Amino acid sequence: MQKVNQTLNDDLRPEYDFASMEGGVRGKYAKRLRQGTNIVLLEPEVAEAFPTEDAVNEALRGVLNTARAVRRTGGLPDETLLLPILKRRRKTRQRPAARG
Length: 100
What we know:
mainly alpha, 4 helices, 49% helix
C-alpha cells in the first residue's frame, strides 16, 4: 500500500469575506492573553537545579532580598571585601629562600 501525497489547501473559500463582517476585531484578546502569560525558558542545567516553579520562585526571592539589602545598606564594609583578596595574595606570594 502506497502513501498518497496529499497537499493541504489552507486557502479560504471565496465566500468568506472577513472585511465585510460586522463586529470582528483583529487581536481583540491579544492584550489579555499577554497579561496572563509569563513564560520563561530555563537552560537544562538550571532546570535540573530547580525542578519546580516554587523552587525557582524561592531562589529568585532570595536574590531580590539580597539585592534590596545591598542597595539599602550600601553593601558590605570595605574590610569584609578585602579579607579574601589579602588571603589570596598571601598564598600566591613566594617567600625568598633562606640564606645560610
